[in-house]
Structures are given as structure tokens and as C-alpha cells.
Specification:
Elements (H helix, E strand, L loop, with lengths): L5 E3 L12 E7 L3 H12 L6 E8 L1 H5 L1 H7 L5 E6 L5 H11 L4 E4 L5 E2 L3 H12 L3 E10 L13 E4 L8 H6 L9 E3 H4 L15 H10 L6 E13 L8 H16 L3 H21 L5 E2 L8
Parallel strand pairs: 2-3, 2-5, 3-4, 7-10
Antiparallel strand pairs: 1-4, 5-9, 6-10, 7-8, 7-9, 8-11
């Protein structure tokens, strides 16, 4: 059955000793940040990756020829849809087409540090891990004001739990999508459930809860910040009431609707609020003063 996506510019990357990592990047109305996200992948010191870019309608799809002619690295695979199919369908298409033995995710308004994949791959080798996340820094969106100081980029280190496992995920989503990488040869490919309701905006949270139920998961959170996650006031998750409603709905669906589970969800929701505040409790720093090695 046709997906409505047109695939272009697909070449197989050269063989090497490292495993191929497939990077999933859905794109919709993030043209202002896409260049930075693409550069973050292209600058990786880990050589064996393929980047699956899904231009899912919007201005990026309309300008697809320009993007493809600008970024001609043969490791980039472009998929173009003239109409918006949605985030979950875009990611599922990329996962289905991925050729790598590992899958990583990078949202098109986030940006990786050049050593992101290398640090996680080395950690996976040392500890035999098959799912890894990392620390990250929030980056404040550029101001619309014209003064140099108001437009300067500022970063804030996220405060995360010390352990990444299933009980931790019930309390807080400690695995942001753009930080994550997992071994599909060992765990298999996991796909996103298409949300029936626009209220279910935390499809990434539902995805990790499902994956972490697998008893074969061996997970590690690398606390060194390896990427920037951009805070945008117009993003879906900026509505905190809607985010809490989505979080509780996902937990109920995941755990079951019994009365006992409803009480448990209230407890988990209070911890979710605690971690949401704690995660953002660091101080903002000028970008040139931010220490990426801590």
C-alpha cells in the first residue's frame, strides 16, 4: 500500500567496522532550525550512519529540491510528502526503511554534539547496553528582538534521574527522543502507535514504555549532555495542562483502567510534575560558557 511519500537520493553507505546507525528525523514546520539539526548529524565523528529525513508537508517539503541540492552527503536518504501525514507516521516510515542495526532519533529542531554517537556507542560496548539515552541542554529560542544580547543563545543543563529503567520511566520520561539510540538487531524494531486523539501528544513516552517492557532491555543514561533540545513556546508540549492530561492517559492505557491503577497514576503524575520542575531547575548560561563535558 502506498504511503504517499516519495523517496529520493538513496545510496548505500560504505562498509566499515562500526555498526550502521539509522537516524530518524521527521520534519514539519521547523525550517528555521533544520539546518542546525542536519549539521549536528553531518559533524558526527562516528562515521557509519544513515540519516532518514522525512519532509512531511509544510515549507520544507515545498523546498525539498533546495534542501536536497544543499545537503548531498550520500548517507542522507530523503523522503518527501506534499501533505502532512503526522509525526508518528513519519517516524514509522523511517523505522520501516531503516537499514541500520541501531536506530537513533533526532528531532528537526534539536541539535547533536559532534561526539554524540561515539560516546553512546563506546558506552554500549563497555557495558553491553542495547538502549541508551544521554544528558542534554535546553536551548532558549532566539528572541525576536534585534539587539545582540537579547538574541544571544542561552543553555540550561537538564537535571535527570541517575538511572534509566522501566520504574524510572513510570515516574518521568527520562529518555527524550533526540537523545535515544537502541539496538534493533537485539530488540527488534518498535513502531509508534498512531494516536486516536490529538490529546495524546506524548507519543514518544508511550513508545518507550512499550519498549522497556521487554525484559531483554539493558539501558544506560549517559549523563554527559550530548545535544540541545530547543524550547519553543508554540510547540505541542509547551501546554503543560495538555501535557499532564496526555501523560496520565498514556499511563492509564499502559497499566490498565482498574481503580488501583488510577490511584497509582495519580501518584506517578505528582512525581511527573516534580521531575518536570526539577528537570528545568538549572541556571541559564551563555552558550560560550556552557561546559559540554560535565
Amino acid at each position: 500500500m502506498s504511503t504517499g511519500f516519495k523517496r529520493v537520493l538513496h545510496r548505500t553507505p560504505p562498509l566499515g567496522m562500526e555498526p550502521l546507525i539509522s537516524i530518524v528525523m521527521p520534519v514539519f514546520h521547523t525550517e528555521a532550525y533544520l539546518r542546525e539539526s542536519l549539521q549536528g548529524v553531518l559533524q558526527q565523528d562516528y562515521p557509519r550512519w544513515e540519516l532518514l529525513v522525512i519532509l512531511d508537508g509544510g515549507p520544507e517539503a515545498a523546498n525539498s529540491s533546495l534542501w536536497q541540492s544543499t545537503y548531498t552527503d550520500p548517507r542522507i536518504r530523503w523522503f518527501v510528502s506534499r501533505r502532512n501525514r503526522g509525526l508518528t507516521r513519519s517516524r514509522n516510515l523511517a523505522i520501516r526503511c531503516a537499514k541500520g542495526s541501531w536506530i537513533a532519533f533526532c528531532d528537526s529542531d534539536d541539535a547533536w554534539r559532534p561526539n554524540k554517537l561515539t560516546v553512546q556507542w563506546n558506552e554500549a560496548q563497555r557495558g553491553g547496553y542495547n538502549v541508551l539515552g544521554s544528558g542534554f541542554a535546553f536551548v532558549r529560542q532566539h528572541s525576536l528582538l534585534v539587539s545582540a544580547e537579547s538574541d544571544a543563545e542561552r543553555l540550561k543543563r537538564a537535571i535527570l534521574p541517575s538511572i534509566l529503567d522501566y520504574p524510572t520511566l513510570l515516574v518521568t520520561n527520562a529518555l527524550p527522543m533526540s537523545s535515544a539510540i537502541y539496538n534493533v538487531e537485539f530488540l527488534g524494531k518498535y513502531y509508534f502507535r498512531t494516536a486516536a486523539s490529538a490529546e495524546l501528544i506524548h507519543e514518544d513516552y508511550a513508545y518507550w514504555l512499550n519498549l522497556f517492557r521487554n525484559p531483554a532491555v539493558r539501558s544506560k543514561l549517559v549523563h554527559q549532555p550530548l545535544l540541545c533540545i530547543r524550547i519553543r513556546p508554540q510547540s505541542r508540549s509547551s501546554n503543560k495542562v495538555k501535557a499532564m492530561r496526555a501523560h496520565s492517559a498514556i499511563l492509564l492505557e499502559h497499566m490498565g483502567p482498574s481503580l488501583w491503577n488510577r490511584f497509582r497514576v495519580w501518584g506517578y503524575l505528582s512525581l511527573y510534575v516534580y521531575w518536570a520542575i526539577r528537570k528545568r531547575s538549572g541556571a541559564w548560561q551563555a552558550s560560550q560558557d556552557f561546559d559540554w563535558n560535565r
